[in-house]
Structures are given as structure tokens and as C-alpha cells.
Amino acid sequence: MSECSDVAIQATCDDASLCKRYAVQRGYWEDKYIGYMVQSSTSRKQPEISRGYYARTEAIWKLLVQFVSIMEQKCQIVSLGAGLDTTYWRLHEAGLVPHGYFEVDFIDVVTRKIRCIGTKPALRSCLSDFETQSDKSCLHCGAYRLVSADLRDILKLEDKLISAGIDFRLPTLFLAECVLIYMAPDKSSNLINWITDKFNDCVFINYEQINMDDSFAKVMINNLKLRNCWLAGAQACLSKQVQMNRFLDNGWLNVVCNDMWNIYNRLPDRQRIERLEMLDESELLEQLLQHYCLMVAVKDTSDLGLEMML
């Protein structure tokens, strides 16, 4: 399968950001910073979409907080394909900033985010030394490090992270949200393997599609093709087991994977958000969430208690 164009991949960043902004506007969760990153969304989103983003955001947030708390902030987070994500600012507000928080994305996205941060005092005030540490392709401000890199080029990615101050000795959590599926399986496997080679203690949270060989998935794939967006890594997303095998085969010792429908139904705040917008029936929501998963992989060489996250 052809790889998606970089421009088309970056367009998915805007789509996701607008959906998150809309859900926040409707009260699904609180994020006082997303409004500085993304303009107000005027077009209505389907309730199924907002509920899906709620489940995704809440589940990942709980895992991030758990990781930083277990490590007592003596750790790092690396967000791969971070886009316009505001997690760093939410962690800062909660007093849970890790030793290092790294974001990686294409240079156009990074440049845009740097410009946005630089013009928004509410964002800039959470960073240190913004004026003296920034340029058009990276931003190094205390714990927050924003770098441009192509995840398919491991050598350059490593160089960029080293320049940004990554510490291979610290426990490190990697986060990817609908990122690996745009990479050919050999490229994503190289990335996954590189992480286990470099870090003794690490966690990988992967939010991504699954069940990509049924009729529902084919509709999703065809809709993306119309936007010149090809899912080059779809073969690694055929099932939960296939997702897990990709990590188990590349040095990760413990892996769990749950579909988002299962996760959604276990979230404690579900009844509140279901009152925000009514659904005539839940069949479409169930189908949608059964085609996404949250996978957690752990390598805990130093026995730090990271397996509690599984």
C-alpha cells in the first residue's frame, strides 16, 4: 500500500484538534488550553465522534498521570506526532510535569505550534526561557522540548532527541495516537525496536485502529483515500493480537490491548457525558469504538513498578 503524503497526514492533525475543541466546548472534559491552539469549532460534530474523543482523551490522561505518579516525576514523556496537543499544559496545571516532556512532529506542524505558543501568553507563561531557546524547527524550554523529525528516519530522530536533552537512563513513556498506521509496518517496527534498544525502562501507549479488514473499516479506508490519505500500516492493525505481536516481536516484554468500546463502558464519568448529547441508538458508536484500541506495552528492566500500568 502507498504511504500517505506528509501533507495529508498533517491535515489529520487539524481534524483531530477541531474535534477535541468541539468536545471541550460541549463539556465532555476540561481543557482551558486547547482554545489557544485551535480556533472555535462552528461545525457540529456527531455525538459518536465526541464520545470517542472523550474516551480516548480520558483513558490516555489516566495512564499518563499514573506513570508520572509512579515515577514521582523522575521520568520522561515522548509524544510522537504530537500535533497541537495540550497535554503538557494540562500536566503543568496539575503539578505533574515530568523531568522531560518531548513532542515530535513534522517541521510545518512544529513551526506552527511554536508560533502559536509565542503569541499566547497563557501558553508561554508555562514555559521557561522561551525567547532565548526557540528557533523555527525546535523549542527547548525547561522540561518542554518540541522538535521536528520524521519518525521514519530513526537516525535523525535520535539526533534530534539527543540535542533536545533526552536521557536514555530515565524511565520514558512514548505516546502515539493514530500515528503508526500512517507508516509502513517495517518503519513502525524499526521505531518500536529502537525504543527497546535505547531505553531499559519504558512504556508505549498506542491509540490506533483495529479490525481493519472488515466492511466497516473498508468504508473508513475509502473515505481517507478520497483525501489522498493512505493507511500504509493497516496490516499491523488487523486485530488486537496483531497489534500486540508487533510489540512483542520487537523487544517489549508485556503488552495488553483493549478496544475502545470496552474502555468507554468502564469509564466512571460515562453517565455524565451521555447526558450532554443524546443518541437515538448506540450501534454506530459501538461499531466505531470497536475499530479503535488502546494498547500499553511495558519494559520494566529495573523493576520500577511499571507493570502496574497494564
From TrEMBL:
Catalysis: reaction(s): [phosphatase 2A protein]-C-terminal L-leucine + S-adenosyl-L-methionine = [phosphatase 2A protein]-C-terminal L-leucine methyl ester + S-adenosyl-L-homocysteine
GO BP annotations, alphabetical order: methylation; regulation of signal transduction
InterPro entries (UniProt xref): LCMT1, Ppm1/Ppm2/Tcmp, SAM-dependent_MTases_sf
Residue ranges that the Swiss-Prot or TrEMBL entry lists as coiled coil: none
One Pfam entry name: LCM
Positions of S-adenosyl-L-methionine binding: R56, G81, D150, L151, E177
UniProt keyword terms in alphabetical order: Methyltransferase, S-adenosyl-L-methionine, Transferase
Domain of life: Eukaryota
GO cellular component: cytosol
Gene3D superfamilies per the UniProt record, alphabetical: Vaccinia Virus protein VP39
Enzyme Commission number(s) of this protein: 2.1.1.233
GO molecular function: protein C-terminal leucine carboxyl O-methyltransferase activity
Function statement: Methylates the carboxyl group of the C-terminal leucine residue of protein phosphatase 2A catalytic subunits to form alpha-leucine ester residues.
Similarity comment: family membership: Belongs to the methyltransferase superfamily. LCMT family.
Name of the protein this chain belongs to: Leucine carboxyl methyltransferase 1
Organism expressing this protein natively: Ciona savignyi (Pacific transparent sea squirt)
